[in-house]
Structures are given as structure tokens and as C-alpha cells.
Amino acid sequence: MDQVRLGVIGYGNMGRSHVKYFDQVKGLKFTAVADPDPKETELLVKEHGVKAFTDGYELINSGEVDAVLIATPHYDHPPLTLAAFEKGLHVLCEKPIAVTAKAAQETIEAHKKHPELIYCGMFNQRTSPTWRAVKRLIDEGAVGELIRVGWTIQGWFRTQAYYDSGGWRATWKGEGGGVLINQCPHNLDLFCWFVGQPKRVTAAQVGLGKYHHIEVEDEVNALLEFENGATGTFVTSTAECSGINRLEIVGDNGTIIAEPGKPVRLLRNGTPTREFLATSPERFATPSRDTISIEPGEKDPGHRGITENFINAILHGEKLIAPAAEGILGLELGNAMLMSGLKHQPVDLPTDRNAFEGVLQDLIKNSTFKKREVKNTGAADLAGTY
Ligand SMILES: NC(=O)c1ccc[n+]([C@@H]2O[C@H](COP(=O)([O-])OP(=O)(O)OC[C@H]3O[C@@H](n4cnc5c(N)ncnc54)[C@H](O)[C@@H]3O)[C@@H](O)[C@H]2O)c1
């Protein structure tokens, strides 16, 4: 095979954004699209000569594709993924790979039965030069044993108009959550990519519809604890417009401070912190320290980078940047934060996946929320929002 016939399932905001760069991806042949509204895909049929379907499962069963890119609302990701594997198709799934860790696990188990297929998650922030620099430093041992990690993420500001733009958005039934399941899957994935999954969410505060007319969370403050005693904080909101996005990873050997758009700073300790504090005879001394500033520089290939990597993995066995199976770690961490915040109690990881399913089903069953009239303002330009 020298070309991968790719079908896009879900031609909304994100499906459209993906299609725009397809002609730049070597080895990708765009052959099919599925969306319930044929008017939306009419132009694609004319311009790209693709086959259009009104349902993702029709596309999967059509024989027109070798691989699918799933860009529907989240709850549909696992059943479409399972159907694609059954049909012997490679899967590139938008984030999150599922709404619950339980559903994600089912896709991972199904994939194990088809190891010849590629299963990739659209965790496009893994290609960001800033986050790649952080990952490289950690892998090189620049931080050493983790002491503390803190991430304040206020770059996900969303208006009420955004939440009103789709019937499924920001409802328990249609989306399964708010900022943790829609915007933060990127950060939760990176968080686990950098420092692993904590063992416990010791406490989380989640604000349900605190700043917007929605029923799901638009603010989260979570305290975390790691196996070695290291601590963490994860703070986010869709109602703060500062754009602050600051990650601090503190370890025995050094500290990383990263903010997209700025150089990544590594504060290196001359002597590991713990050794110094235990052995220094001085009362107010600190370890010697130097600062390295890393200019990320390179351009971020973003979504195209992940799609290229997916195609190259199929055609040439290239190593995946974002194997979908890794997506369960951040997803489960988000599930745990939500459960901790709602129940006002600590939640251990790995979580009791049935317990979270129960919590979510209760939220759906007991929902009395009335969504405002959905305003269909057409597809939005997502550039700069992810
Ligand atoms: N990676 C990123 O940076 C990023 C950014 C935005 C959205 N997303 C993800 O993309 C997904 C879609 O988000 P969106 O903003 O594009 O939503 P959207 O509502 O704009 O688009 C979803 C589309 O899927 C269609 N659809 C629903 N069920 C379908 C089915 N069974 N078969 C075919 N089409 C179906 C809908 O009609 C709609 O056109 C979400 O999971 C979201 O988290 C990812």
C-alpha cells in the first residue's frame, strides 16, 4: 500500500479543520466523509470527489476507506472505533478517546485483538515545541525525582455563545462533562505524559455552571498526590480570560517552568535539593543554581503533525506520537477530578471505573437542566483555540 484511503466521520468544526490540510499529507487519500446533513458535505463531494454518507457506520462498512478520522461528539468515539476495528480499519480518534475510562478501556481491549491496526489519539499538543521541550528535559533526567507539579490553565476562555452553539455541548447526556472532557483532555494527556498518573486526587473543587448557563463544570481546582509523596495542583476554568497557561515541574535536580509562546526555563540545582537540605551546615544556604533558557523555535505542525504521523505509522511503521491507549491516563484523571469534586471526597487512581459510570448515569438521569435554544451559527474557525 502506498496510499491510505481516509474517511472523516463528523464534518463539524473539527472535521472541517482537518480536511483543510489533507492535501499537504503525503500518502493520505481523502475518499469519504460522513455527516447526518448531506447539505454540509455537498461541496466536498464536488471539490474532492469523495463519497458522502449520512452516518459514520455506513462509511465504515462502505469499502471506501482503509482508515477513519473520528470527529463526532465524544460519546460516539468508542462505538465508532469498535465498529472500525471490526471492519479492519485503522483509527485516528479525536480527543477524548471516550467520555469514561471504562469505555476507553473497551476500545483498548478491542484493539489488542487487531494489533495490525493503528489506533491513534488526536492529542495534537504533543507536537507543540514547548511541550516537546518539556518532555525532552524530563526524559533526560533534568528534573529528577518529582517533588511538585502545578499547572494553571486559563487559556480555554469560552463565551455563552460557544456553549449555546450545539445541542450536545455542556450537557451530561450529550457531552458527559465540561472543561475536563472538552478543553482539558490535551492538558490532562500532557500532564500524564510528563509526570505519570498521580495515585490520588486528594480534593477537587468543581464549579458546575458557575459562570455560564450550563450544567457541567466550568471551573476546577484539584489537589493531587503521587506515589512518592509528590504533590500536584491542576487549576482551570473557561471563564477567566487572562490566557495564563503556566506549568511548573519541580524535582530534586531542577525545576521546569513552561508557558507556551515563551522560552522554556530549566532551573538546575548544583546539588540535588534533598541532599543539600540534609547535609549543608549553613542555615540559610540554597544549592547553587543556573538557568537554561530553551527557545522552542520550531513551528508546531499541530493536527497535521499527528495525522501525518498516523499515515506514516500505517505506511512505514513510524512510531506513534500519541498512541490512543495512552489517552486513558489523562481521561481517567479527569474522571477522578470530577468524581472527587462532586462527592467531596478523595478518589484513588486507577479509579473504580464502574463507580464513575454510575456517577455519570445519575447525573444524566437526574438532570433537570434546560438548554437555551441552540443557535446554529455555522462552523467556527478553530485556529488558535487548541
Ligand atoms: N483536537 C482538538 O484540538 C479539537 C478541537 C475541537 C474539537 N475537538 C473534538 O472534536 C470532536 C467534535 O467536536 P466539534 O467541535 O467538531 O463538534 P461539532 O458539533 O461541530 O461537529 C460534530 C459533527 O459530527 C456529526 N455527527 C454526529 N454523529 C455522527 C455520526 N454518527 N456519523 C457522522 N457524523 C456524526 C455532527 O452532525 C456534527 O456535524 C469532539 O470530540 C471534540 O472534543 C478536538
UniProtKB/TrEMBL annotation:
It holds the Pfam family GFO_IDH_MocA. It comes from the Bacteria. SUPFAM superfamilies: Glyceraldehyde-3-phosphate dehydrogenase-like, C-terminal domain, NAD(P)-binding Rossmann-fold domains. Residues 131-256 form the GFO/IDH/MocA-like oxidoreductase domain. Residues 5-118 form the Gfo/Idh/MocA-like oxidoreductase N-terminal domain. Gene3D superfamilies: Dihydrodipicolinate Reductase, domain 2, NAD(P)-binding Rossmann-like Domain. InterPro entries: Gfo/Idh/MocA-like_OxRdtase_N, Gfo/Idh/MocA_Oxidoreductase, GFO_IDH_MocA-like_dom, NAD(P)-bd_dom_sf. This is Gfo/Idh/MocA family protein. It comes from Natronomicrosphaera hydrolytica.
